[in-house]
Predict the structure.
Amino acid sequence: MVDQAVKLPELFALFGQPVAGNPTQEMIEAAFRARGLNWRYLTIEVAPEELEDAILGMRAMGFLGVNITKPHKIKVIPYLDRLTEAAAKIGAVNCIKLEKQELLGENTDGKGFLESLQTVIEPAGKQVVLLGAGGAARAIGVELALAGVKQIAVVNRDHNRGIELARLLSEDVGTNAQYIHWDGTYLVPSSTDILINATSVGMDDAYAQLPLDMKELREGTISADVVFNPADTLFLRQARSAGCTTLDGLGMLVNQGVIGFRLWTGLEPDKDAMRVAMEEALGS
Ligand code: NDP
């Protein structure tokens, strides 16, 4: 070992299940390089029973920031000192910052989506149809509610998950939200301003069909997908044919990296370099 007074790189990591050639790591390291930062972002497999030790290890080893992925997004909360308002309402954390020895938990899922959405529409006062009621839908629903949308229809197959998300959005976040049971083909109402696929349908399958009827959609309605691989899903292609403006899930994913980078460094990253690195890592 060489014992010299050298400046070590700042450390960041992703704690979760193993992912070969992790695209998030490629994207964040590309952002560091583009800003001339000799910093490191590691992908570390953490077993559920080791999560507390891993989080304590962040402080011990001086990691300044960590992303959290499945299956730790909810279980990590007791080990943190503070949560942002959105992370507390969503009840899940995917980004941690070590700040003056305090661990701050943030959720960037919904914020990444919102940042994409705001490039094409201001959500305040708009009618939203949210397909799905899992983790992504929950994060997006909370951010849209905090952004002041007029109404959110939560459309989901599983009754309990759908009811619970509509309850959270109306009672805990104070928006006008209803659950609609997704049984058979769902006719998207013409009053919809923003239609969001927050289900996993379309991931790794460019031809996966959602049971939807979009014939009443107005031209110019915004249709957004959380699915990022492939980025151009059948849902988005069908929405474009119906005259919608579309947003893909890759933009949301890159924005999450952008938001994490800002939180950790206080700097504005090179978003284009991040998207290129992510596309290369995904082979898209
Ligand atoms: P969850 O497992 O928590 O939720 C999955 C949702 O998809 C549930 O609402 C489920 O409905 C619904 N669903 C699954 N299959 C069908 C189907 N055949 N028809 C109708 N609904 C269906 O997953 P997440 O919410 O965590 O993730 C959802 C997707 O979003 C994933 O593909 C994930 O990779 C992606 N994602 C993308 C991000 C980005 O930045 N672009 C960020 C986070 C996630 P039910 O409850 O009825 O089973």
Notes: Residues 109, 112, 132-137, 156-158, 161, 199-201, 203, 226-228, 249, 252-253, 256 surround NDP (CB under 6 Å). The chain has a mean pLDDT of 94. Residues 11-107+252-282 form a domain with the Rossmann fold fold (CATH 3.40.50.10860). The chain has two domains: 11-107+252-282, 111-247.
